[in-house]
Design goal:
96 residues; alpha+beta
Length: 96
């Protein structure tokens, strides 16, 4: 498995909708936690977006999975960036 850093940029004026869909979003994320594929996730302190650290076979497959995130289904993410990441120290180093 490869490690990927996924950055979400939240759509403007989407805070209320994100609050509404957050339970479904977290349930979706918890499926990846249970499968050992989501290593960490959380919003940026300024509320502009979030960082999610996934493992996946490849970027194309991960992008397909990300389309199923309720935040993406509801168009609450205006941009996302997926970057292959190679952690060398710290808690995620064993995943590289």
């Amino acid at each position: 498995m490869t490690v990927f850093a996924v950055e979400y940029v939240y759509a403007a004026d989407s805070e209320a909708a994100r609050d509404e869909h957050r339970p479904a979003h977290r349930e979706w994320l918890n499926g990846f936690v249970a499968a050992g594929r989501l290593l960490a996730s959380g919003p940026y302190a300024d509320g502009a977006g979030a960082l999610l650290i996934f493992t996946a076979q490849d970027e194309a497959g991960l992008l397909q999975e990300l389309k199923q995130d309720p935040f993406n289904v509801q168009n609450l993410v205006s941009a996302l960036k997926v970057t292959e990441w190679q952690p060398v120290t710290g808690a995620f180093a064993d995943y590289a």
